[in-house]
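Two entries, shown back to back:
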Amino acid sequence: MIIDIIEIEAIHSFSRLESLKEVYGIIWMLIPILLLVLGITLGVLVIVWLEREISAGIQQRIGPEYAGPLGILQALADGTKLLFKENLLPSRGDTRLFSIGPSIAVISILLSYSIIPFSYRFILADLSIGVFLWIAISSLAPVGLLMSGYGSNNKYSFLGGLRAAAQSISYEIPLTLCVLSISLLSNSLSTVDIVETQSKYGFWGWNLWRQPIGFIIFLISSLAECERLPFDLPEAEEELVAGYQTEYSGIKFGLFYVASYLNLLISSLFVTVLYLGGWNLSIPNLFGPELFDINQRGKVFGTIIGIFITLAKTYLFLFISIATRWTLPRLRMDQLLNLGWKFLLPISLGNLLLTTSFQLLSL
């Protein structure tokens, strides 16, 4: 009887140990996700502050300066204000679609960050179909905008949702063809493999030099996917009041702006990964082999350097996107569709055919 009691206690202690291990495993699995979400949130706040400062400089005005030093807390203050505002629902609209739409727009973009390599092996999920997963997930965001426009029971909102869907389809195809060309050059769809392929020759190994036409098409298409000027027709205030977000207020209204800046940040990160060498220092081995390989040693310092390089390249591209917004006028809807279907699509197809031909000839 004593032996049985001892065995039962041993079984109970073993089961408690296993349950603790499972809990610790779940916690360790959630920590990288929470750190990534925190980093993305800080990145969005920095983008909002940068856009206000850059736009103020272009328009020769002061910009934010009261909320925190240099106005860096202005975006946080705006988000807090929206959080406490009242959420209004349209009386004759579809409240389910109206409420779900902003969440789909934000979540579909957030999932894309899981395949971004910020440094050497510093990635949440290194998948063999990484770049195509990003395209598949990001294509869900216009569905959320269309749901928001339809659920609002407002003609301006519905037209904005339809424009968002039409614009996304028009520019997603050229963008996908450019990504496919990069995948052919790298012989992989993994974002980590694409970056490592560019690291052989430093600065001259960037896909920017091997795919200059694809880079320009990707740049234009990513701006259109983010609905940035001159492609912000789904929310053109002169025509549609505020487009698909006309009937929204409070935090739901803020979610659309969060989705817009998240999309801009993920597009800039993919430009860095696909065309600008990712986390690499971009110094050829001939000039500095020790410095060139410092971020591939797996140490903490190398990882931090890799993250810093990735973010520096990303925010350089963000500066170009923000300056474009305050420089070019808005296109008409027919001009936007003509640019996508009559120019970018044939050119991206030709670029893909040339890339395929060169790859076949090099075998």
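entry 2 starts here
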Amino acid sequence: MKAPLAPGIRFITYISRDSWYRGFILVLTFLFYTAYHLSRKPISIVKSELHRNCSTAIRPADLNITNNATWCDWQPFDQDNYQTLFGVLDNSFLVAYAIGMFFSGIFGERVSLRYYLSFGMVMSGVFTCLFGLGFYLNIHTLWYYASIQILNGLMQTTGWPAVVACVGNWFGKGKRGFIMGVWNSHTSVGNILGSLIAGVFVSSSWGMSFIVPGLIIASTGVLCFFFLIERPEDVNCAPPQHHVRDAENASLPPKNASSGDRTSNSGIYTESQEVEEDHSKAISFLGALRIPGVVEFSLCLLFAKLVSYTFLYWLPLYISNIAHFDAKQAGDMSTLFDVGGILGGILAGLASDYTGGRATTCWVMLILAAPMLFLYNYIGQSSLGTTIGMLLLCGGLVNGPYALITTAVSADLGTHECLRGNSRALSTVTAIIDGTGSIGAALGPLFAGLISHSGWNNVFYMLISADVLACLLLSRLVYKEIRGWCGHIPRARGFKEI
């Protein structure tokens, strides 16, 4: 009698070969972008150590000082304009990132994603470590740290278009919102890990707060070089179906390759030779802008990312100033915002998959975020329980739309039906959307540094205004989706032609 298979083996054989590969790619790219965000976070944790309240610090007995108020600060951040100098560091990275992102997608469509990601992660690790070496080499010049931030910002642009393109190559539209909502938690997981790792070293040796994350992202670059699979076809797996028409076309008999006749399916006329040529050409920048919805979602992301990145770079300092926590405590507390972001991204993906309304889901979460930001500023520090609850809620509402636009929406638009099967648009579309959003990511921390001198209330008014503007930019798409629900126009689940 044949012995039954062990339960573990039955489980392995139950899951198809294609599913194993898809799961492997999802986990691998998750690790890659977790490392990217992990290496960005230390600067926000270290800020409160570079400029401290020296009156509460224990002064070494053998230290000869000339200024009791700034003896424990790291030059040049010991000056009264330290917030402006922090803004210079933030924007050196973010402006370089925003500019580089528009070119990164173009490169990503034309070179191997495996080589591109590997190079970007290794170089990001090098520049992150160089920032931390400033502590051990006793470097006190602003230009050194700003230059490192610029170069690191350019290297970090290799990440997002490439990982989204890779995931988009492996996963179809069916449950893309939920899958990419869960997958996009790498952003918050990276921020949390980056905060915790930096917090371990920040009070004793802040240089290690950069060096350890730098070594981690460089190691993931090596991992990418040896294991990343760019497309299902590379390992004889079935490609995903990006559209309903893909399934319809799959059931049709193949057209005679020698025939010059055109065939029709759902009113779309194509010629086989022309389609084949389209597959071999990467889309142009202007061609990507003409895809319906790209401009609206890009501009919406500009304001949504302005809010998210202001929290990313300034929340630990805000908590330290308002709640009077030390650098490590403020960094640990700020991770709750990212925990809320994980939940918000998953919720946004589920809701948009179920309703078929990507724009409406973003609009609802953005409109709810505005009053929550107002409440957090006024009552968020009244008690520990209130602080925890408000950080989780604000993190979910702020990062939910941001996560949905940069993942599922970008993948939907990059495989839009108007492209007629051209799969080489995904990286460019992703770069345009995230590049435009990165302009907001650069402006948010800059404005926060300038406005915070007049009080934190004004910073929150700026963030609330940005949320409202993001909602207004999605109004046309929301109107189209609502009309679709009311039966005035056809509506397909997931992103539709708008």
